[in-house]
Please model this.
Amino acid sequence: MNIIKNRYWYFFISLVIIIPGLFFMGLHWAQHPDVGPIPLGIDFRGGSLFEVQFEGARPSVDQITDMYAQFSSETELLADPVIQPLGEDAYSIRSKKMEEETKTKMVAEMEASFGKVTVLNFTSISASVGAEVAKAASIAILFAAAAILFYIWWAFRGVDHPIRYGTAAIIAMLHDVLVVLGVETMLGFFLGWEADALFLTALLTVIGFSVHDTIVVFDRVRENSRIFRRLEYEALVNHSIVQTLDRSITTQLTVMFTLTALVLFGGDSIRHFVIILLVGIFSGTYSSIFNAAPILVVWENQEWKTWFKKKDELAPLS
Model:
């Protein structure tokens, strides 16, 4: 099984997956320059999360939207909230920051219009706190990338060019981060989902899974480089991938089956988190096998030197 020979097809597939996400990220940034490329929840930009349950018939989304518009003022711009169903009788409503007094009046108005209301959760975060959380999240991801690069460089110091292994792992990790961010932005565009603290948890988990699987493949390359010293590097890497393929796929499928069950039966409160995790782990499995290891071969052969040359320039002189 020659997996490495089709490496440029794998890179092309990755681009095809990433480009739509980048497009939607740019679109969201253009539409919401104050938010950024992905739809951020109240955990990152401040605001209020209001979860309410209705004993009678649940009102429509338009009715809730109209009620928020009525309470909107110059100091509390509550219009255009993000409303998501919770089960069959409740809503999760995200809006700009709502004061406790306004919340009390809102509950009274809901009860007068729709019957008894139970407040399941009310969380309010200031914009300054949200900005600090977003900054801390960015630092956490950058620190994780730097730590991974240093660790892999140190762990593979016994082979030639150990920095290549760390760099390839970081590129594969960035591939997975872009896939996850792109999917999150598309889900936000079509379903109104927003990135929250659970999204950050899923993203960091995906980074861990991606690097773990990449190290499994790289470790086999390191072992085989000591055993098959005369083997061509491309064949060595391909042999290492084939040896670890069953283990990688089996391990990831076990996790993905569990996550799929949680998506189907786990409830609305964790569905967003689990879907992001599922997408990220699938991407991590792909990038570890079809991106990270082929990058080592491209680097070893320095293939970029021939990318822009014509065929007649590459042909040997007779």
